[in-house]
Design brief:
Blueprint (H helix, E strand, L loop, with lengths): L6 E4 L6 H10 L1 E4 L6 H8 L5 E5 L8 H5 L6 E5 L8 H6 L3 E3 L6 H17 L1 H9 L18 E5 L3 H12 L3 E5 L10 E2 L3 H7 L2 E4 L13 H7 L4 E4 L8 H9 L5 E4 L10 H4 L4 E3 L8 H19 L10
The structure holds 2-keto-D-gluconic acid.
Length: 318
C-alpha cells in the first residue's frame, strides 16, 4: 500500500511532536483533538481510518466507543507500555492489531521510582520547601529515614520491576517481591501473597500492569500491613490503588508516606494528597525524558510503518 493512502487518526495532542510530524509527513493523518465536534468528525471520517495512534495514558487510550466509530480500523499503535486504557476486548473481537512500547522506557521509569523513594524517605521536596521559605534560620530540619538496609518490596517483577530492583540494590536495600509467577532467574526473595510482602516491606514499589485484574489491589488491608514506618511508591497506574484508602492511611498515620506519579482520575490530584508534606507528587512523568520519549516515538512509528507495509509489527500485544 502506498503509505500516503493509508489514513491514520491521531488521538491526542500530547503525543510527541516528532511522532506527529513523522506521521503527517508519511501517512494521511487526521487530528482528532482539533475536531470541534468529535462525534460529527467521526461520523464523517471514521470509516476511512485504518490506523489509530494513541497513548497508554488514561486520558487517551482507545475506548470501545471510539473503536466502534472506526469500522475499518486495523491497527492501534500506542505510545506507552501499559495498554489498560485500550479496550482489548473490542480490539480482539475485530482482530485489530495492537502495539505498545515496552523495554525502551524501563530505565527512566525505574529512575523515577527511585527518585520518589529517595525523595519521600529523605524528605527532599519538604526540605526544599523549608529552605526556600527561610525556616532554616529558625532551626534545623527534622530527621528523615535511611534507605540502606531497608526492604524494597516490589509488586510486579517485570522488566520495570527488575530495573527498580537493580537500582535499589545499589542503595544497599534488600529486595523482596510479589509476582503472580515465580521468577527463578532472579536472586530476590519472593512472597506468596501481597499481604506478606507488604508486612515485610519498608517501601512498597508498584510496577505492575493496570486493568481489571489489578484494580485497587492496594487496599486498606495492604496499607495497614505496610505499617506506620512504611512508604508506598506508585509508578504503575492509579487504578491499582484504592485512593480513598490511601488518603485515610496517610491521614491516620497508618503508613509513613507516599511517592506518587499516577492517580485514579488523572490529571486530578485530590487536595487531601496535595496538601500533605509526607506525599511526593509528580504528574505522570516517569517515561518523560527527551531520550525515552524519542525512543518510544520511534518505536510507535516503526510499528506503524511495518503494519502499513504488510510486515510483522515489532512490539505486538494483540
Ligand atoms: C504514558 C505510561 O503512556 O508507558 C506507559 O504505560 O504510562 C507512560 O509512558 C505516557 O503518557 C506516554 O505519553
Amino acid at each position: 500500500m502506498a503509505l500516503k493512502q493509508c489514513n491514520v487518526l491521531i488521538r491526542g495532542k500530547f503525543l510527541p511532536p516528532q511522532l506527529i510530524a513523522n506521521i503527517e509527513n508519511t501517512f494521511t493523518a487526521f487530528r482528532l483533538w482539533e475536531a470541534e465536534d468529535e462525534a460529527a468528525f467521526l461520523a464523517e471520517n471514521g470509516a476511512k481510518i485504518e490506523i489509530l495512534v494513541t497513548s497508554g495514558n488514561a486520558v487517551m487510550g482507545a475506548s470501545a466507543a471510539l473503536i466502534a466509530a472506526l469500522p475499518n480500523l486495523k491497527a492501534i499503535c500506542s505510545n506507552g507500555v501499559g495498554y489498560d486504557s485500550i479496550d482489548m476486548e473490542a480490539a480482539r473481537a475485530r482482530q485489530i492489531v495492537v502495539t505498545n512500547t515496552p523495554e525502551v522506557l524501563n530505565a527512566c521509569v525505574a529512575d523515577l521510582g527511585m527518585a520518589l523513594l529517595l525523595d519521600v524517605a529523605r524528605r527532599l521536596s519538604e526540605a526544599d520547601r523549608f529552605t526556600r521559605a527561610g525556616h532554616w534560620q529558625q532551626g534545623r530540619f527534622p530527621l528523615s529515614s535511611k534507605i540502606g538496609g531497608k526492604v524494597c518490596g516490589i509488586v510486579g517483577l517485570g522488566s520495570i520491576g527488575q530495573a527498580v530492583a537493580r537500582r535499589a540494590q545499589a542503595f544497599d536495600m534488600a529486595i523482596h517481591y510479589y509476582n503472580p509467577r515465580s521468577r527463578p532467574d532472579v536472586p530476590y526473595i519472593r512472597h506468596d501473597t501481597l499481604l506478606s510482602l507488604a508486612q515485610q516491606a519498608d517501601f512498597l514499589v508498584l510496577t505492575l500492569p493496570g486493568g481489571p485484574a489489578t484494580r485497587q489491589i492496594i487496599n486498606a488491608e495492604v496499607l495497614a500491613a505496610l505499617g506506620p514506618q512504611g512508604y508506598l511508591i506508585n509508578i504503575a497506574r492509579g487504578s491499582v490503588v484504592d485512593q480513598q484508602a490511601l488518603i485515610a492511611a496517610l491521614e491516620g498515620g497508618i503508613i509513613a508516606g507516599a511517592g506518587l506519579d499516577v492517580f485514579e482520575h488523572e490529571p486530578q490530584v485530590p487536595a487531601a494528597l496535595r496538601q500533605r508534606d509526607n506525599v511526593v507528587i509528580t504528574p505522570h512523568i516517569a517515561s518523560s525524558t527527551h531520550e525515552t520519549m524519542a525512543a518510544m516515538a520511534d518505536l510507535v512509528f516503526e510499528n506503524m510503518l511495518a503494519f502499513a507495509q504488510g510486515n510483522a509489527v515489532l512490539t505486538r500485544v494483540l
